[in-house]
Amino acid sequence: MDKLFSNEMNVLKALAILLVVSGHLEFSLLGIFPPYSFQLALFFFISGCLFKDKYLTDVSTFVERRIKSLLVPYFWYNLFYMLVTILIAKLTGKFWGMPLSFKNFFITPFLNGHQFDLSCPLWFVTQLFMTMIAFLFVFRALNAVTKNKFVHLGFFVLLGILAIPFSKIFPVTPLMLIVIRTMFSLFFVYLGYFYKHYIKDNYNIFTPKWFGIVFVLQSILWMFNRDYDPEHGIGLSYVLVWARFDEQLIVPVITALTGIWASLFTVKILFPYVKDIKFVQDMGKVTYHIMANHLLVMYIMTAIFMYLNGVPISERANHDIYWIYNPVQTTYLYFVVTMVVTTYVGLWQKKFYNKILEFFGAKDKTVS
What we know:
Blueprint: H1 3-24, H2 39-50, H3 59-92, H4 102-106, H5 108-111, H6 123-145, H7 149-169, H8 174-199, H9 208-221, H10 251-274, H11 278-285, H12 287-308, H13 327-359
């Protein structure tokens, strides 16, 4: 992988995690794209861009690396947030999570990942693991039948589109939830692979004409938006973790496509200006840790604001985990502080992990 592409992907990862955190604060960095309308599809897309063909013939190495880079840190975080949740319950009287059990610690992470509220954004990690393993085997099977890239693309497009009606036709049991999420995400993984291998260096999709098409299309899609009002449904947004697409059938796929294009376009424009900003590159390197820790930082900030303003801790227990203190005035401060703290904490965690690996004579080959 050439260094320029690697750096661009790193900036794209930084943008993706900024979009996730801003979404949890209920504002969008790209105004015409509401929170939850494409951010997770973008992460799956990036994973597809980074997929290497050598793994098609080296399955064991791929699985081993995904376990080390995704599942091992996940369960360390799971243990950490179990202890933090127990501590908070002792201090405040509220347990932010599901009852402690073997199932909720080891099985629930693969079903919905909401066993502990403070670490619930990490549901994406276990889903990414399942998606990438499925992608490897499905892609191998397709290659055994035909090498035609358009047949491959058509197959994955069909999977992505069918995922939404599946959520309406079949009861969304825990197993069906995994199936639906995997079908939907497989499309965007292959789209990333397709973009990297067949579009990126062969076609310019960032011309004024393309910008106009995407802008007009997203403007039309905006008519399906509901301005975050739960009474009217979620519109352009969708909740992939619960396979909740409301009345929509094709809109979630289209808005994910336009959002991915807008993200790539944004990086193309900004890259010359941000490529040498170390903080941006660092952010892209520790997206895993930002995903894991940002709700905890927000929770601590809320506790501090409440203490300074004389608000009893019982008030915090009356709201969900995403609640922040006085959002009209504090949202952007939450955003900046959270990104700075989680990025530097993530860098420290990576250094600490590398020290441990060096002690045992290994190297860190994981991808954050």
